[in-house]
Amino acid sequence: MKKSLLVLPLIAALFAVSAQEIDLGTDQLQGADLRSANLRGVYLRSAQLQGANLSFAQLQEADLSFAQLQEADLRFAQLQEADLTFAQLQEADLTGALLSGADLTSAQLQGAVLLEVRAVTASQIKRATNWRLAFYSWDVLADLNLPADHNEGVEKKLAEFEQEKTIMP
Length: 169
Fold this sequence. Notes:
The chain has one domain (1-169): Pectate Lyase C-like, CATH 2.160.20. The chain has a two-stranded parallel sheet with strand order 1-2. By secondary structure, the protein is an all-alpha fold. The protein contains 4 helices and 2 strands. The protein is globular. It is 25% helix and 2% strand. Strand 1, helix 2 (122-126) and strand 2 (135-136) form a beta-alpha-beta unit. Residues 1-9 and 15-21 have low confidence and may be disordered.
């Protein structure tokens, strides 16, 4: 059965009940198309969302702690007051996301794209893990006291990591 068919009952559930009643923790939602979904306040702790499309999703106050969000599309997602503690955000795209009050403590940001993110502070970002290996807009670079050529350096460093992976058994 195709993944998209497996997600249909989930989407139907999202529109049939209020967000407070939905518990999607530990669900297997890799590659799910949840763009523009209203997931406000939803419990997604430890959810498997690798490669999921959550662009423009309403994720205010959602519990995404420990969620697997590697390579997820979170462009322009509304993440105000979301719990992203220990979330795996490697190579996730958060371009234009609204992060006011989001808790990024120990979130893994290696290779994450945080270009044009809105309402985020340097202290929020610095609570994350590997925040120095993420991509930022020039204004955020300045707030983080990172050099103007930071993104180019990150690109090189990530390429080195990939090369090391292919060499190591």
